[in-house]
Recover the amino acids of this structure.
């Protein structure tokens, strides 16, 4: 009986052991816990500085400013009544004959040549009169021509006023203008000066041989109050007005002045022209041995008129005229007359 009981116990334990073995076989094998690799401690992030927000002020819109002019210059006014009027030779009377009859004397730098080289008359080169007027800021010169260019109906030459401030006959400043507009403008106006004083050669006005001078070799720059203007005279397309500031001239109280119309050589570096062109080379508008015109053509100028003084003696290039009036008014001045001729004129 005892043996049977032991057998019974063994039989009861065996199934339990089998179940435990099966459970152990089916369970996953244990794995090792992962080992963490130590890393460097991260740096503490730098905080960006706190910037206080700015507020853009609101600006009220304004009108766009006008573009500044190149020179904010002093402006001419309306010329007043002429103080004096210079009268020049009128070659239209002999234009049909293709010649001038008087007023041209190359040996004294005086020209009456409003003709082309084929002796076609050019009314916009023929000076008839020149007026001078003034105000506290400017001198005004009105050059009246016989007419406009027949083709373009404009003034096609270069026009100028030459000054002799030394009162010796030697020009020292030339205002040169071309293509003048209807309104005052300093465009196309050039002021020439002669720092080395050789305009006119050894003997100003008189013709000198073999002159090597450079005439008007410098250009004067404009400034606010040192400036010159030109325009076509209102109401007369055959007249050009030139305004020259007193400051540009150095504020003189006495000087001589004369006018030019040049559509030929147009080279101030060759002033005086009679020092560079002899009678044979230049030709002549008056019928004779040097007729017709050659190198010096399309050219007219005037004698010079004194301003602000009565010369005690004749100055080279000066007009033959009555003394200036005691009060402002219009006085006619006759063309230059060489000492060797008897001259008269009626105004």
């Amino acid at each position: 009986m005892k043996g049977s009981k032991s057998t019974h116990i063994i039989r009861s334990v065996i199934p339990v052991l089998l179940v435990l073995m099966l459970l152990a076989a089916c369970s996953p094998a244990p794995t090792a816990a992962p080992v963490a690799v130590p890393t460097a401690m991260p740096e503490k992030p730098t905080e960006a500085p706190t910037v206080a927000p700015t507020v853009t002020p609101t600006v009220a819109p304004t009108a766009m400013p006008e573009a500044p002019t190149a020179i904010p210059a002093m402006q001419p006014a309306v010329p007043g009544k002429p103080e004096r009027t210079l009268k020049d030779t009128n070659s239209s009377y002999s234009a049909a004959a293709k010649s001038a009859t008087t007023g041209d004397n190359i040996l004294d730098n005086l020209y009456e040549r409003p003709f082309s080289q084929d002796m076609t008359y050019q009314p916009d080169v023929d000076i008839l009169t020149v007026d001078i007027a003034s105000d506290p800021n400017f001198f005004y010169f009105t050059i009246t021509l016989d007419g406009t260019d027949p083709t373009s109906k404009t003034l096609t030459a270069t026009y100028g006023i030459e000054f002799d401030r030394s009162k010796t006959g030697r020009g020292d400043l030339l205002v040169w203008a071309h293509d003048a507009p209807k309104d005052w403008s300093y465009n196309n106006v050039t002021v020439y000066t002669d720092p080395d004083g050789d305009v006119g050669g050894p003997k100003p006005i008189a013709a000198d041989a073999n002159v090597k001078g450079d005439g008007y070799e410098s250009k004067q720059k404009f400034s606010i109050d040192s400036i010159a203007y030109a325009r076509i005279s209102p109401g007369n397309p055959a007249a050009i007005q030139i305004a020259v500031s007193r400051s540009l001239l150095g504020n003189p109280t006495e000087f001589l002045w004369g006018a030019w119309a040049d559509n030929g050589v147009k080279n101030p570096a060759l002033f005086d022209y009679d020092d560079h062109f002899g009678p044979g080379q230049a030709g002549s508008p008056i019928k004779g041995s040097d007729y017709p015109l050659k190198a010096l053509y399309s050219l007219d100028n005037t004698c010079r008129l004194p301003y602000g003084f009565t010369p005690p003696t004749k100055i080279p290039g000066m007009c033959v005229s009555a003394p200036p009036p005691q009060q402002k008014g219009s006085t006619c001045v006759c063309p230059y007359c060489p000492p060797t001729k008897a001259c008269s004129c009626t105004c």
Summary: The radius of gyration is 49 Å. The chain is about 10% helix and 20% strand. Residues 337 and 343 are 6 Å apart (CA to CA). The longest strand covers residues 127-134.
